[in-house]
Amino acid sequence: MSELQLLPPPRRLRLAKGSFPLACPARLILPEGCAPGTIDLARRLADEIAAHAERTVSNASEAAIVCTLAPGACQSYSLTITPQRIAITAADDAGLFYAIQTLRQIVRQSGAELPALSLTDSPDYPVRGFYHDISRGKVPTRATLFALVEKMAHYKLNQLQLYVEHTFAFRRHPDLWAGSDPLTAEDILALDEHCARHHIELVPSLSTFGHFYTGLVSPRKQHLNELGLDASALPFSWWDRMGHYTLDCRNPESLALARELILELRPLFRSKYFNLCCDETFDLGKGRNAAFAAAHGSGRLYVDFLKSLMAVVREAGAVPMFWGDIVGNHPELVGEVPPDALALDWDYSADLHDTKSALFRKAARPFYACPGCCGWDRWSSDLDTATANILGFAKRGRRTGAAGFLNTDWGDRGHINALGNSHHGLLLGASASWNVGATNAASFDAAFNAVEIGDSTQSYTRLLREIGSAAIVPWKQLVLWFDPSPHRPATDWDEASGLPVGILGIDPQAAFAAYERIEAARTTLGRVAAQAHAQDPLALREALVGARGQALMQALGGLLVSLAKKQKLPRSPTPAFIADELRRFESDVSEIWHARNRPSEYFRVRAALLELARRLDRAALGLPPLRTKRAA
Question: Which residues fall within 8 angstroms of residue 530, CB to CB, at 6 or more apart?
Fold first, then answer.
């Protein structure tokens, strides 16, 4: 057996001489009163042992796996393997559950002979979560959510939040969710039960202040927009969905609407928490409430409405959570936040320059450290930034007293990054929040390659890092090229070419070089993936499709700028080739999208890719540049 790799890394691991020969049938002795989920997991362990073990009954009475409970720190356990037996001692049912997960990893790597060892383990953070966006384009199928829960549990994560702006089928508000293939009450109840069986707390998370786009473009609700405009007459805009449309917080109907939504959603969850979101209220005090903001400040607008929303959550029998960015920008008002409300301190930079941890600690307000997987606005995640961000936040959160760790996975502008491409960040967050002292980039990548990907070459994550960091042409600028928002300044576009200035400033030669680097890495990645034995084979396909998208964006950007500036085009790739590759690529994206997700808003991604191909063809043929008509 090669070096044993465990994720997350245990607190203490000592290898000993000898080994334990697996026997089948195996005797697995559990303490009385185990939770149903732990019993289910024990059965899975027995099935995995059966796949590796010699079928024998010799010494069956001695060759047992004995599990006991004994006092200790919450979620802690010890695991001892000797040539005669396997013994697990856990402080509680969660610790026993995690011990069995660790033993499953050992069995998978060791086969019929388990190495003798002693292991003691416990988490750094009592709460270790994953936050998944299901509002910016895609809504996962129930099967995908169940599989996500099982993966989280295997790597000892214990909280899940799903970001909902409009993708829940509220009974009285089909104008919120129509066309999005939303989750239903039955979906949530089933998912909550599945989470509970896997020692995961499913926390409701609902946008109730900012990011209210889908609600405020409804003719019935647009009068609740802070911005006084006829939003229902405007075409769809990714720019506005991300950057505008905040509730008019001084209109009593806004609170009444939020209250109705909260009270409908809350009873479906057994969690004691409710995340109100309340982040990025960009329009606050810039429209209907401009006079009030001028007299009293936008911070006063914010905190008063926040406290009203929190009162509703308490009425629903829950403890409020909220994203801490806005109140963190008004430190003088942090003391007005109720002392039990839990702030979510997010910062997705490599250097954590905008974290509010110190502020919340000084104010004695509980908070979670919230890094990100850095896959938004990308076809392939930026693993280098994500690694620095996740590891840095895990260490800082420990120093500043964070009550939990919530790793985020957003889906800005169509949620083009497939879920499998976030697995690296998901597992890194699990590892760092369990044992940050033993988690670094090199050791984690080696363990991820071995445990999750089954890559004996140990090159998979290196290639993902190369693909993720090479890009210089952003998806955001490409799709905002034809965005009809009335809120973007005219200076964002170049008059002569019609291109966004964010694209026009790109060096075409650098873009073509990035295309070549990514394509070369993708070719190698394909060979590695073909030999890998991944826990989730679809993730390998998603990585290859993501790498292709990352490469095509670079070639597309380089060609557009070269054509606009009348510069010499490379012999390869040609505009026609890239335009047709975009069309073929759309078919591949459709396949992996629908493998994990409901149709939801895939039609927007398809339209964007095909429009980019059409515009490249027009530019190559010298036809007049297309200019998106801005809504008035």
Answer: none
Ordered by where they begin, the domains of the chain are 12-121 (3.30.379.10), 128-439 (3.20.20.80), 467-620 (no CATH)
> pLDDT category, 632, cuts 50, 70, 90?
low
Rounded Cα gap, residues 481 and 494, in angstroms: 11
Q: Tell me the pairing of strands 77-81 and 113-121.
A: antiparallel
Do the Cβ atoms of 322 and 338 come closer than 8 Å?
no
Instruction: Kindly give, in sequence order, each residue whose CB lies less than 8 Å from that of residue 550, ignoring residues fewer than 6 positions away.
Output: 378, 379, 380, 467, 468, 470, 471, 518
User: CA-to-CA distance for 498 and 235, rounded, in angstroms?
Assistant: 20
- Residue 281 confidence (pLDDT) above 90: yes
Cα–Cα distance between 523 and 598 in angstroms, integer? 30
Residue-wise pLDDT tens digits, 476-522: 999 989 999 988 888 888 988 889 999 999 999 999 999 999 999 99
Euclidean distance between CA atoms 490 and 484, whole angstroms = 12
Q: Which tens digits make up the pLDDT trace of 603-620?
A: 999 999 999 999 999 999
The DSSP code for 491 is G
Judge contact between 29 and 96, C-beta under 8 A.
no
CA dihedral 280, 283, 289, 293 (to 10 degrees): 60
Give residue 216's Cα distance to chain centre: 26
Assess contact for 141 and 598: CB atoms under 8 A. Answer: yes
Q: Report the relative pairing of strands 201-206 and 23-24 from DSSP bridges.
A: unpaired
Q: How far apart are CA 417 and CA 403, in angstroms?
A: 29
- Compute the C-alpha angle 212/152/347, nearest 5°: 45
Rounded CA gap, 323 and 309, in Å?
Answer: 13
CB 124 within 8 Å of CB 8 = no
Q: Find the helix or strand (DSSP H, E) in which 407 lies.
A: strand 404-409
Nearest-angstrom CA–CA distance, 475 and 519:
17
Which pairs with CB-CB distance under 8 Å and at least 24 residues apart come from 550-553? 550/378, 550/379, 550/380, 550/467, 550/468, 550/470, 550/471, 550/518, 551/514, 551/515, 551/518, 551/519, 551/522, 552/515, 552/578, 552/581, 552/582, 552/585, 553/379, 553/471, 553/473, 553/474, 553/475, 553/478
Q: How many CA atoms lie within 13 A of 253 on its CB side?
A: 10
